[in-house]
Amino acid sequence: MRSGDSTTIDVPESSAIAKGKAPLIAVAKQEKGGWKRGVAIFDFILRLGAIVAALAAVSTMGTSDETLPFFTQFFQFQASYDDLPTFQFFVIAMAIVSGYLVLSLPFSIVSIVRPHAAAPRLLLLILDTVALTLNTSAGAAAAAIVYLAHNGNPNTNWLAICQQFGDFCQKVSGAVVASFVSVVVFMFLILLSALAIRKA
């Protein structure tokens, strides 16, 4: 009877221990998944912000056109983004970046629904890096031209035109600033993707 009593005492203790451990493991997995889902939601919000910045850069640069009120019989003084190949490249590159950001939203949603999936994160990490490179090159090239438009360069006889074309320079400067806002957002997106993959 004593051995039977010891047996009946041991069985409830082992089941209690097992029941005590199971919820702890479930809570730990749930907390880990919740953290990854929070990162994915923040990633989605940042992509929406990058879309707004990139579209603002494209629309502002694409509508930068100014004609001076005075003209001669043979000349009309006008400034437009399509007068410079650098600004044309800027518009095309930022339009591509904007299109990519819109197409990346479904993959970001997949990361929210399945926070432990590494494949969408890896794909976004690679494509975000390519888009960041294109965005940075477009913004840097346009920034160099905007600097010359504001300050000129006496060594190459490049005259500053912003004193005459003030509205044009204001628009192209705003477009460049919006493109670099998109660059900063891309940096955060890449860091988030890399962190999520590393913690997988």
Topology:
Blueprint: H1 2-62, E1 65-71, E2 76-80, H2 85-113, H3 119-151, H4 166-198
Antiparallel strand pairs: 1-2
Helix pairs in contact: 1-2, 1-4, 2-3, 3-4
Q: Got a strand count?
A: 2
Q: How far apart are the termini?
A: 53 Å
Mean pLDDT: 81
Number of helices: 4
Structural class computed from helices and strand pairing: mainly alpha
What share of residues is helical?
over 70%
Pattern of helices and strands = HEEHHH
Morphology call: elongated
The poorly predicted ranges are: 13-30
Rg calc: 28 Å
Strand percentage, roughly? 5-15%
Strand order of the largest sheet: 1-2
**Largest sheet entry:** 2 strands, antiparallel
Quick structural gist:
This protein is mainly α. The protein has helices at residues 2-62, 85-113, 119-151, 166-198, and strands at residues 65-71, 76-80. It is elongated, with a radius of gyration of 28 Å.
Descriptive account of the structure:
This protein has about 200 residues and is mainly alpha-helical. The protein has 4 helices and 2 strands. It has helices at about 1-60, 85-115, 120-150, 165-200; strands spanning about 65-70, 75-80. It has a two-stranded antiparallel sheet. A hairpin with a 4-residue loop joins β1 (about 65-70) and β2 (about 75-80). α1 (about 1-60) runs antiparallel to α2 (about 85-115), α1 packs antiparallel against α4 and α3 packs antiparallel against α4 (about 165-200). The chain starts with a helix and ends with a helix.
